[in-house]
Fold this protein.
Amino acid sequence: MIKFTIITLFQEALEPYLKTSMMWKAVDKGLAKFDFVNLRDFGLGPHKSVDDTPYGGGDGMLLRCEPVFAAVESVKAKDPEAKVILPTPVGEIWNQEKARSLAKDAHYIILCPHYEGYDERILSIVDYKVSLGKYVLTGGELPALIIIDSVVRLIPGVLGGETSALVESFSDGDNLEYPQYTKPYDFRGMTVPDILLSGNHGEIAKWREEHSGKA
Ligand code: 6GU
């Protein structure tokens, strides 16, 4: 079973997605497990503070080391093998190959940063720095969901057809999926390519190969 422990201040932002559709089915089938750790529980002082101003000045607040280390250590105390993923705009760009390499029986801790950033020393306990692309989000929660979704769907048994994840877009190199059609045959004058109705599997395979966009 693949397990994700998500360290976040905003568990309520993550839960609805993980309780829906394929992610929930993966849990239901015993193929995946999602746990949450509230970073606030490890905050400092009466206000359970988790951030502070940057040395050297500058705008915004940074996640402090103490709460983050304590939260990660609380998880690793129970499972020293767990690997830490940090969503950050300066990480390595996420792709299908990276998703595939994590899709195995393992425990991942996703540490969701917030505020303007994090104390650089936090990187000393991070195994994977992941970016979703060249733009900036307000926190690591949306990236965490994207990372989880793209990995969990590759776990055998999660998707309906055992082969769907294998033949689909991007999973087999960088080839894009071929165009697909369902009923009706004629929708507002837009018809389905007749070859797909021919029953000729060889010709259909050839058509699909020719029409799969190569990225
Ligand atoms: Cl992983 N985090 C944030 N905050 N912004 C991002 C990102 C991650 N990937 C792209 N933009």
The first strand starts at residue 2 and ends at 8. The chain has two domains: 2-152, 175-214. The longest helix spans residues 65-76.
